[in-house]
Amino acid sequence: MENCIFCKIINQEIPSYKVYEDDKIYAFLDISQVTKGHTLVVPKQHVADIFEYDDDLASEVFARIPKIARAIEKAFPEMQGLNIMNNNKELAYQSVFHSHIHLIPRYSKEDDFSIHFGDHTNKYSQEELQGFADAIKEQVN
């Protein structure tokens, strides 16, 4: 894609701190470094978000996540956890519209990164939950 910053990074038109590359993906440090070692994994094929992946691309990209995660863990033995995040579409906080997966090392509860879901256990009845499950199940191919 012509004006995609990640396509430009993949094509070496913009510098990056590359941590891994093969024929399908490019992984590099996120410039914001939410925590030390925060890495982005991007498919070389331009797709805007998860909704544009086909089965082959998903298999290729997601098969590489554990390899890169283990490399981060070995590079930073003080790491105590890892968040894997993928934001899709603007409402879900996607800011660059070339699909990318964040690997965010966690070092402590005070490392300035938080995900809080809240407790919504009693928000929906069992019938509503079954209806949600059935609606999704009908659409899975």
UniProtKB/TrEMBL annotation:
* InterPro entries tied to this protein: HINT, Histidine_triad_CS, Histidine_triad_HIT, HIT-like, HIT-like_sf
Pfam families given for it?
HIT (PF01230)
**A single GO BP:** nucleotide metabolic process
The sequence motif named Histidine triad motif is recorded at 98-102
Quote the catalytic residue positions. Answer: H100 (tele-amp-histidine intermediate)
Return one GO MF term. Answer: catalytic activity
Domain annotation HIT: ranges = 5-115
* Listed PROSITE patterns: HIT_1 (PS00892), HIT_2 (PS51084)
**Which named protein is this?**
Histidine triad protein
Give the organism the record lists: Enterococcus florum
